[in-house]
User: What shape does this take?
Amino acid sequence: MLNFKTLMNRLMPFAILILALTACATAPPVQEMSDARQAIRAAEAVGAAQYSPESLTAAQVLLRKAQTDLETGAYETARRYALDARAQAIKARETASNNPQPRSTPVQKKIP
Assistant: This one.
């Protein structure tokens, strides 16, 4: 028969593990939010608003949803939205990067 002290010694590692996993699962997705914002800025910098507006808009909408969930404490949902926002922003950036960039100087027409 196990005494109380022996039982506690055997259960303590499991209790610590459960607490650690719970703490990880409820942490705010700070890095994911930052990654999504940076990916959106990178997409905007290469002209995604012109060449891939649907993906860029989707990324921005997802980031707003992530921010709302972050503010209400729904961290897991916020994390998923932030990861999806980052993926959409990367898609927008890649699409925009594969298109020719607009000319920086206007083309002058020759007058006959």
